Amino acid sequence: MKGKKGPLLFFIAPFGLLFAAFYLAPIGYAIKQSLYKIERQGTFGKAQEVFGGLEQYTRVFSDGPFWESIGRVLLFGIVQVPVMLGVALALALLLDSGLVKGKAFFRLAFFVPYAVPGVVAAIMWGFLYSPNLSPFTALTGNVDLLSADFVLWSMANVVTWIYVGYNMLIIYSSLLAIPQEVYEAARMDGAGALRTAWAIKIPLVMPAIVLTTVFSIIGTLQLLAEPAVFRTFSSAVTSTYTPNLTVYSTSSIPNFNLAAAFSVVLALATCLLSFGFLKLTQRGADK
Question: Which keywords describe this protein according to UniProt (predicted)?
Protein backbone atom coordinates (compact mmCIF):
# COMPACT_ATOMS: atom_id res chain seq x y z
CA MET A 1 0.00 0.00 0.00
CA LYS A 2 2.86 2.35 0.86
CA GLY A 3 4.46 1.73 -2.51
CA LYS A 4 1.32 2.89 -4.29
CA LYS A 5 1.31 6.31 -2.61
CA GLY A 6 4.17 7.61 -4.74
CA PRO A 7 2.50 7.05 -8.16
CA LEU A 8 -0.83 8.23 -6.74
CA LEU A 9 0.64 11.50 -5.52
CA PHE A 10 2.41 11.88 -8.87
CA PHE A 11 -0.94 11.86 -10.72
CA ILE A 12 -2.79 13.98 -8.14
CA ALA A 13 -0.07 16.64 -7.79
CA PRO A 14 -0.78 18.51 -11.09
CA PHE A 15 -4.46 18.86 -10.20
CA GLY A 16 -3.60 19.87 -6.63
CA LEU A 17 -1.18 22.56 -7.79
CA LEU A 18 -3.62 24.00 -10.33
CA PHE A 19 -6.48 23.84 -7.83
CA ALA A 20 -4.42 25.69 -5.24
CA ALA A 21 -3.10 28.27 -7.72
CA PHE A 22 -6.32 29.11 -9.54
CA TYR A 23 -9.00 28.40 -6.91
CA LEU A 24 -7.73 28.47 -3.33
CA ALA A 25 -5.22 31.29 -3.80
CA PRO A 26 -7.72 33.75 -5.38
CA ILE A 27 -10.24 32.99 -2.62
CA GLY A 28 -7.63 33.58 0.03
CA TYR A 29 -6.52 36.81 -1.65
CA ALA A 30 -10.11 38.07 -1.89
CA ILE A 31 -10.67 37.37 1.82
CA LYS A 32 -7.43 39.18 2.67
CA GLN A 33 -8.37 42.19 0.53
CA SER A 34 -11.82 42.37 2.12
CA LEU A 35 -10.22 42.94 5.54
CA TYR A 36 -8.41 46.11 4.43
CA LYS A 37 -9.52 49.62 3.56
CA ILE A 38 -8.06 52.70 1.89
CA GLU A 39 -7.25 55.79 3.96
CA ARG A 40 -5.95 59.18 2.82
CA GLN A 41 -4.21 61.96 4.70
CA GLY A 42 -6.40 64.92 3.78
CA THR A 43 -8.42 65.36 0.60
CA PHE A 44 -5.55 64.88 -1.83
CA GLY A 45 -3.27 62.82 0.37
CA LYS A 46 -1.59 59.62 -0.68
CA ALA A 47 -3.84 56.59 -0.54
CA GLN A 48 -2.73 54.01 1.99
CA GLU A 49 -4.12 50.52 2.53
CA VAL A 50 -4.65 49.75 6.23
CA PHE A 51 -6.26 46.93 8.15
CA GLY A 52 -9.97 47.58 8.58
CA GLY A 53 -11.22 44.37 10.17
CA LEU A 54 -14.87 43.72 9.31
CA GLU A 55 -15.60 47.28 8.23
CA GLN A 56 -16.12 46.31 4.58
CA TYR A 57 -18.56 43.57 5.60
CA THR A 58 -20.51 46.09 7.66
CA ARG A 59 -20.89 48.16 4.51
CA VAL A 60 -21.94 45.08 2.51
CA PHE A 61 -24.68 44.08 4.94
CA SER A 62 -26.00 47.64 5.08
CA ASP A 63 -25.92 48.09 1.28
CA GLY A 64 -29.55 48.12 0.15
CA PRO A 65 -28.97 47.92 -3.63
CA PHE A 66 -26.74 44.85 -3.22
CA TRP A 67 -29.41 42.91 -1.32
CA GLU A 68 -32.03 44.07 -3.81
CA SER A 69 -29.87 42.57 -6.54
CA ILE A 70 -29.67 39.31 -4.57
CA GLY A 71 -33.46 39.23 -4.35
CA ARG A 72 -33.73 40.02 -8.07
CA VAL A 73 -31.54 37.10 -9.15
CA LEU A 74 -33.33 34.78 -6.71
CA LEU A 75 -36.63 35.69 -8.37
CA PHE A 76 -34.91 35.19 -11.72
CA GLY A 77 -33.75 31.71 -10.67
CA ILE A 78 -37.08 30.63 -9.18
CA VAL A 79 -38.77 31.24 -12.53
CA GLN A 80 -36.05 30.71 -15.14
CA VAL A 81 -34.30 27.59 -13.82
CA PRO A 82 -37.40 25.32 -13.68
CA VAL A 83 -38.51 26.53 -17.13
CA MET A 84 -35.06 25.95 -18.64
CA LEU A 85 -34.59 22.51 -17.09
CA GLY A 86 -38.16 21.52 -17.95
CA VAL A 87 -37.53 22.33 -21.61
CA ALA A 88 -34.14 20.57 -21.49
CA LEU A 89 -35.73 17.46 -19.99
CA ALA A 90 -38.54 17.46 -22.58
CA LEU A 91 -36.01 17.76 -25.44
CA ALA A 92 -33.84 14.99 -23.97
CA LEU A 93 -36.84 12.68 -23.64
CA LEU A 94 -37.91 13.51 -27.17
CA LEU A 95 -34.46 12.69 -28.56
CA ASP A 96 -34.38 9.46 -26.57
CA SER A 97 -37.74 8.38 -27.96
CA GLY A 98 -38.24 6.74 -31.32
CA LEU A 99 -40.19 9.69 -32.66
CA VAL A 100 -37.24 11.78 -33.87
CA LYS A 101 -35.23 11.10 -37.00
CA GLY A 102 -31.80 12.65 -37.49
CA LYS A 103 -30.93 12.72 -33.78
CA ALA A 104 -27.33 13.74 -34.44
CA PHE A 105 -28.50 16.85 -36.28
CA PHE A 106 -30.91 17.88 -33.52
CA ARG A 107 -28.33 17.27 -30.78
CA LEU A 108 -25.98 19.64 -32.57
CA ALA A 109 -28.74 22.16 -33.32
CA PHE A 110 -29.83 22.31 -29.67
CA PHE A 111 -26.22 22.65 -28.49
CA VAL A 112 -25.16 25.40 -30.95
CA PRO A 113 -26.51 28.33 -28.85
CA TYR A 114 -24.21 27.27 -26.00
CA ALA A 115 -21.24 27.65 -28.35
CA VAL A 116 -22.17 31.32 -28.88
CA PRO A 117 -20.34 33.55 -26.35
CA GLY A 118 -22.71 35.04 -23.77
CA VAL A 119 -21.81 38.62 -24.70
CA VAL A 120 -22.48 37.98 -28.40
CA ALA A 121 -25.80 36.30 -27.59
CA ALA A 122 -26.83 39.21 -25.35
CA ILE A 123 -25.98 41.76 -28.08
CA MET A 124 -27.92 39.76 -30.66
CA TRP A 125 -31.01 39.48 -28.46
CA GLY A 126 -30.66 43.13 -27.41
CA PHE A 127 -31.03 44.15 -31.05
CA LEU A 128 -34.02 41.83 -31.41
CA TYR A 129 -35.67 43.41 -28.35
CA SER A 130 -34.92 47.02 -29.38
CA PRO A 131 -38.04 48.74 -30.80
CA ASN A 132 -35.97 50.70 -33.33
CA LEU A 133 -33.79 47.81 -34.53
CA SER A 134 -35.86 44.67 -34.15
CA PRO A 135 -37.37 43.01 -37.25
CA PHE A 136 -40.32 42.03 -35.03
CA THR A 137 -41.78 45.53 -34.75
CA ALA A 138 -45.31 44.17 -34.36
CA LEU A 139 -44.23 42.88 -30.93
CA THR A 140 -41.52 45.32 -29.83
CA GLY A 141 -43.58 48.31 -30.98
CA ASN A 142 -46.40 47.39 -28.61
CA VAL A 143 -44.50 45.76 -25.74
CA ASP A 144 -41.28 47.34 -24.49
CA LEU A 145 -39.23 44.25 -23.70
CA LEU A 146 -36.41 46.44 -22.35
CA SER A 147 -38.56 48.29 -19.82
CA ALA A 148 -38.20 47.85 -16.06
CA ASP A 149 -41.15 45.43 -16.04
CA PHE A 150 -39.83 43.09 -18.73
CA VAL A 151 -36.04 43.43 -18.96
CA LEU A 152 -35.34 40.79 -16.30
CA TRP A 153 -37.44 38.24 -18.18
CA SER A 154 -35.89 39.31 -21.48
CA MET A 155 -32.52 38.37 -19.99
CA ALA A 156 -34.04 35.13 -18.70
CA ASN A 157 -35.00 34.28 -22.26
CA VAL A 158 -31.40 34.84 -23.41
CA VAL A 159 -30.00 32.60 -20.63
CA THR A 160 -32.59 29.91 -21.41
CA TRP A 161 -31.76 30.04 -25.12
CA ILE A 162 -28.05 29.59 -24.38
CA TYR A 163 -28.17 26.85 -21.76
CA VAL A 164 -31.13 24.64 -22.71
CA GLY A 165 -28.99 22.62 -25.14
CA TYR A 166 -26.14 22.27 -22.66
CA ASN A 167 -28.43 20.90 -19.94
CA MET A 168 -30.28 18.76 -22.47
CA LEU A 169 -27.04 16.98 -23.42
CA ILE A 170 -26.25 16.19 -19.78
CA ILE A 171 -29.71 14.70 -19.24
CA TYR A 172 -29.66 12.92 -22.61
CA SER A 173 -26.30 11.32 -21.78
CA SER A 174 -27.82 10.03 -18.56
CA LEU A 175 -30.76 8.60 -20.52
CA LEU A 176 -28.38 6.72 -22.83
CA ALA A 177 -26.81 5.03 -19.79
CA ILE A 178 -30.09 3.35 -18.79
CA PRO A 179 -29.89 -0.39 -19.62
CA GLN A 180 -32.19 -1.51 -22.43
CA GLU A 181 -33.37 -4.42 -20.26
CA VAL A 182 -35.26 -1.91 -18.11
CA TYR A 183 -37.25 -0.70 -21.14
CA GLU A 184 -37.91 -4.28 -22.25
CA ALA A 185 -39.31 -5.14 -18.83
CA ALA A 186 -41.52 -2.06 -18.93
CA ARG A 187 -42.87 -3.01 -22.37
CA MET A 188 -43.61 -6.53 -21.15
CA ASP A 189 -45.61 -5.00 -18.28
CA GLY A 190 -47.63 -3.01 -20.83
CA ALA A 191 -46.15 0.44 -20.13
CA GLY A 192 -46.52 2.93 -22.98
CA ALA A 193 -44.06 5.66 -23.99
CA LEU A 194 -45.46 8.28 -21.60
CA ARG A 195 -45.66 5.86 -18.69
CA THR A 196 -42.09 4.72 -19.34
CA ALA A 197 -40.85 8.29 -19.45
CA TRP A 198 -42.65 9.29 -16.24
CA ALA A 199 -42.09 6.17 -14.14
CA ILE A 200 -38.69 4.99 -15.38
CA LYS A 201 -36.69 7.55 -17.33
CA ILE A 202 -37.24 10.65 -15.19
CA PRO A 203 -36.52 8.90 -11.83
CA LEU A 204 -33.37 7.30 -13.24
CA VAL A 205 -32.00 10.60 -14.61
CA MET A 206 -32.83 12.52 -11.43
CA PRO A 207 -29.11 12.73 -10.43
CA ALA A 208 -28.42 14.49 -13.76
CA ILE A 209 -31.35 16.85 -13.15
CA VAL A 210 -30.01 17.64 -9.66
CA LEU A 211 -26.55 18.28 -11.13
CA THR A 212 -27.89 20.68 -13.77
CA THR A 213 -29.99 22.43 -11.12
CA VAL A 214 -26.91 23.04 -8.95
CA PHE A 215 -25.02 24.38 -11.98
CA SER A 216 -27.99 26.63 -12.76
CA ILE A 217 -28.19 27.98 -9.19
CA ILE A 218 -24.50 28.88 -9.30
CA GLY A 219 -24.88 30.44 -12.75
CA THR A 220 -27.90 32.48 -11.67
CA LEU A 221 -26.03 34.15 -8.83
CA GLN A 222 -23.10 34.82 -11.18
CA LEU A 223 -25.25 36.56 -13.81
CA LEU A 224 -23.05 39.25 -15.40
CA ALA A 225 -22.69 39.22 -19.20
CA GLU A 226 -26.39 39.69 -19.97
CA PRO A 227 -27.07 42.62 -17.59
CA ALA A 228 -23.74 44.25 -18.51
CA VAL A 229 -24.68 44.20 -22.20
CA PHE A 230 -28.32 45.14 -21.61
CA ARG A 231 -27.19 48.31 -19.79
CA THR A 232 -26.38 49.71 -23.24
CA PHE A 233 -29.93 48.96 -24.43
CA SER A 234 -32.02 49.76 -21.36
CA SER A 235 -31.87 52.41 -18.67
CA ALA A 236 -33.74 50.00 -16.38
CA VAL A 237 -30.52 48.00 -15.88
CA THR A 238 -28.40 49.86 -13.33
CA SER A 239 -24.83 49.29 -12.21
CA THR A 240 -26.16 47.29 -9.22
CA TYR A 241 -28.79 45.27 -11.12
CA THR A 242 -27.19 41.90 -10.25
CA PRO A 243 -24.69 40.97 -7.52
CA ASN A 244 -21.85 40.32 -9.97
CA LEU A 245 -22.54 43.60 -11.74
CA THR A 246 -22.33 45.30 -8.34
CA VAL A 247 -18.93 43.70 -7.76
CA TYR A 248 -17.75 44.76 -11.21
CA SER A 249 -19.01 48.34 -10.82
CA THR A 250 -17.47 48.65 -7.34
CA SER A 251 -14.08 47.45 -8.53
CA SER A 252 -14.25 49.94 -11.41
CA ILE A 253 -14.52 52.94 -9.02
CA PRO A 254 -11.97 51.51 -7.98
CA ASN A 255 -12.75 50.12 -4.53
CA PHE A 256 -11.18 46.68 -4.63
CA ASN A 257 -11.55 46.06 -0.90
CA LEU A 258 -15.32 46.58 -0.89
CA ALA A 259 -15.62 44.60 -4.15
CA ALA A 260 -13.72 41.74 -2.49
CA ALA A 261 -16.13 41.80 0.47
CA PHE A 262 -19.10 41.71 -1.94
CA SER A 263 -17.47 38.73 -3.69
CA VAL A 264 -16.89 36.80 -0.47
CA VAL A 265 -20.49 37.29 0.68
CA LEU A 266 -21.78 36.32 -2.78
CA ALA A 267 -19.61 33.18 -2.79
CA LEU A 268 -20.94 32.20 0.65
CA ALA A 269 -24.53 32.77 -0.49
CA THR A 270 -23.90 30.61 -3.57
CA CYS A 271 -22.42 27.81 -1.47
CA LEU A 272 -25.30 27.92 1.02
CA LEU A 273 -27.93 27.75 -1.73
CA SER A 274 -26.15 25.00 -3.66
CA PHE A 275 -25.42 22.78 -0.66
CA GLY A 276 -28.86 23.52 0.78
CA PHE A 277 -30.47 22.29 -2.44
CA LEU A 278 -28.27 19.17 -2.46
CA LYS A 279 -29.17 18.37 1.16
CA LEU A 280 -32.86 18.89 0.37
CA THR A 281 -32.75 16.50 -2.58
CA GLN A 282 -30.74 13.92 -0.64
CA ARG A 283 -33.26 14.02 2.19
CA GLY A 284 -36.07 13.53 -0.31
CA ALA A 285 -34.21 10.57 -1.88
CA ASP A 286 -33.67 8.95 1.53
CA LYS A 287 -37.41 9.01 2.20
Answer: Cell membrane, Membrane, Transmembrane, Transmembrane helix, Transport
